[in-house]
Amino acid sequence: MTRSQAYRDRLVDALVAQGAISTAEIEAAMRAVPRELFLPGVPLDLVYADDVVVTKRDASGMALSSASAPGLVAEMLRMTRARAGRRILEIGTATGVNAAYLSRLVGPQGRVVTIEIDPDFAAGARRGLAATGADNVVPLLGDGEYGAPDAAPFDAVEVTAQAGDIATAWLDQLRPGTGRLVVPLTLRGISRTFAFEAEEDHWIATEQLPSGFVPIRGDGARPQRTVALLPGAAGADTARLRIDDDQPADAASLRAALATPAYRLWTGTTLPGDDGTLSHLDIWLAASLDLYGRFVNVGPIVEAGPGPLGWTPPFGTPASWDRDTVAYLALRRCQGFAAGFELGVWAHGPHREQLAAELADQIRHWDRHRRGGPEPVVRAYRAGTPDHRLAPGRIVDRPQTRMVIG
Question: pTM score, two decimals?
Answer without folding.
Answer: 0.91
